[in-house]
Specification:
560 residues; alpha+beta; five-stranded antiparallel sheet; four-stranded mixed sheet; 60% helix; 8% strand; disordered C terminus; transmembrane
């Protein structure tokens, strides 16, 4: 009950912000929310107070910043989705800032002491109470452990989880409505996108998970110390609300003048940035998905990259890796038929898609791009234009590729800042070719056999018994055949829900009509029907109708 009340209050606050910035019309693409428009138009909030300035995109950005971390990060994610939103909106959302005022240092100290179970002075010989950085999820302090190791201490904001849980519940409800009542919502798989976003955001709240992400990435690049350095995690001092890691010293990649003064080779940096990205995606299938300039530094001594903030990490399954590599190679070989076929094989577009029409559409967006020199081709923009085109062919949104799109845009921007003439394809080709060679032919078969051999050793002794049982059932005509269709299952559930709503609606109508009759015929309530007064019938009939509706509804109740 308390959670429902808090969620209701939060919903009112969100509504107030939308009305304040004249953004409430974004809700009305759902027919079920149309009546809500009239209610808001009658609210004093809609015609009192100052008028917001700027166009729709600017007002949207301001509203998201006002609503807090859940919506700021949602806007940052949407800023990379040019396949869903017009460019003028994504460009404005890209300005969203995650920097907020720090919370009081005494609260940070209490959180640290509570997490570690010790007074702060027994853990750190030095602790800087002034935050070095503050964001919507956490803030960072510097300190020195008792053994002299310099550390960065990340502390999660107090009370944040409750607000984010409320916001995600509201977003989940809106996503459910969008898929239920909007064909476009179903095509875009809004629920899956929100679920993926919720998983990512909750992962950021758990600093133990962030520590594990950093540890995994550090292990992946242990053999490439000249490319990327990941600070060491000090596990003895980590919890879900506090993370203690090695303090790093580097030059932020946005400070180009400082990097030049340090003698850094910009061409080498640009190639390293691209190399790091493609190694993470195709070698490890695990990548840092928040590589904006605030999280990346350059070691002035070695020129290698240093990464921080590992709350958002991406991963790809084997199928997504395979089809992504196939698409990129086919693109640059101008094999548009293969690009179209790869989309169908991956299930990204419906199986009945006309491959020839799809190929023609892809050629129309790619050929003008390839007329440019290769070093002027933006891989990120090419993929984004592809996603925009596939919208016409009912391509379903692939949540596992959202973070990859965002990261590719960031990495390519970083690489081009250092060297505008960089040929991203020249860097990517050797890694993609090597990766695909490992996925095909005898080498790939042998690798798969070695990986699955322990599993086969466990199940092979059972195979004769299982095969004999199946053949015996088939011979006796007892082999069960189960066919499930997700679309039919959804239709069946909607029919059940409709019957429930109908039964309760009819019973409610009887009750309301009965009450109206009683009010209208108050002077004739003693009139007898079958030896019972009229007022008795007006009470019994709605009651019997309600019981009957409950009884009918029991046959249609969904048991998930």
């Amino acid at each position: 009950m308390r959670q429902s009340l808090l969620r209701f209050v939060r919903t009112l606050h969100i509504t107030r912000v939308l009305v304040r910035y004249r953004l409430d019309e974004v809700l009305y693409f759902l027919p079920i929310l149309k009546p809500y428009q009239a209610v808001l138009r009658l609210s004093p909030m809609s015609w009192l107070g100052p008028k917001p300035q700027g166009g729709f995109a600017e007002r949207l950005r301001q509203a998201l910043e006002t609503l807090g971390p859940t919506f700021i990060k949602l806007g940052q994610m949407l800023s990379t989705r040019r396949d869903l939103l017009p460019d003028y909106i994504t460009q404005e959302l890209a300005k969203l800032q995650d920097a907020v005022p720090p919370f009081p240092s005494d609260e940070a100290c209490k959180i640290i002491e509570s997490a570690l179970g010790k007074p702060i002075h027994t853990v750190f010989s030095e602790f800087n109470s002034k935050p070095a950085a503050a964001a919507s999820i956490a803030q960072v302090h510097f300190g020195v452990l008792q053994d002299g190791r310099e550390v960065a201490i990340k502390v999660r904001r107090p009370g944040l989880r409750r607000i984010i849980d409320q916001d995600l519940a509201i977003l989940g409800l809106l996503a459910d409505l969008a898929e239920r009542y909007s064909q476009e919502g179903r095509r875009l798989r809004i629920r899956a996108v929100v679920a993926e976003y919720a998983k990512t955001l909750r992962g950021e709240l758990d600093l133990l998970r962030e520590a594990a992400n950093a540890s995994q990435l550090r292990r992946n690049f242990a053999a490439d110390p000249d490319l990327l350095y990941i600070p060491e995690i000090y596990w003895d001092y980590c919890s879900s609300s506090v993370l203690v890691m090695e303090r790093i010293y580097g030059i932020p990649i946005g400070q180009l003048d400082a990097l030049r003064a340090a003698g850094i080779n910009f061409d080498q940096l640009s190639r390293r940035a691209a190399d790091i990205f493609f190694r993470q995606v195709f070698r490890d299938a695990y990548f840092h998905a928040d590589m904006h300039p605030g999280n990346i530094f350059i070691d002035p001594q070695s020129g290698r990259f240093i990464a921080v903030d590992f709350g958002i990490m991406g991963s790809l399954d084997d199928a997504s890796q395979h089809y992504l590599a196939e698409n990129m190679i086919a693109f640059f070989q101008r094999d548009y038929r293969r690009v179209a076929e790869a989309h169908v094989e991956a299930g990204w577009v419906p199986p009945d898609t006309n491959v020839q029409d799809f190929e023609t559409a892809i050629r129309a967006i790619a050929e003008p791009v390839f007329e440019k020199p290769l070093n002027e081709i933006s891989v990120a923009n090419l993929l984004l234009r592809l996603f925009q085109t596939t919208r016409a062919f009912h391509m379903q949104t692939q949540p596992q590729l959202l973070l990859l799109q965002k990261t590719l845009v960031n990495v390519e921007g970083i690489a081009r800042d250092f060297n505008p003439a960089l040929n991203m394809w020249e860097v990517a080709t050797p890694l993609l070719t090597e990766w695909l060679s490992r996925q095909r032919g005898p080498r790939a078969w042998w690798t798969e056999m070695k990986r699955h051999f322990p599993e086969w050793g466990l199940v092979l002794p059972e195979m004769p018994v299982l095969l004999h049982g199946i053949l015996r059932q088939a011979q006796q005509g007892e082999l069960p055949l189960v066919i499930r269709n997700q679309d039919l299952e959804g239709i069946r559930k909607e029919i059940r829900r409709g019957m429930l709503r109908l039964s309760f609606g009819v019973s409610g109508t009887f009750i309301v009509v009965g009450i109206g009759i009683m009010a209208a015929l108050a002077h004739k309530l003693d009139y007898a029907i079958l030896d019972l007064p009229l007022w008795v019938w007006l009470i019994l009939l709605p009651g019997f109708t309600w019981v009957g509706a409950r009884w009918i509804g029991s046959f249609f109740r969904i048991r998930d």
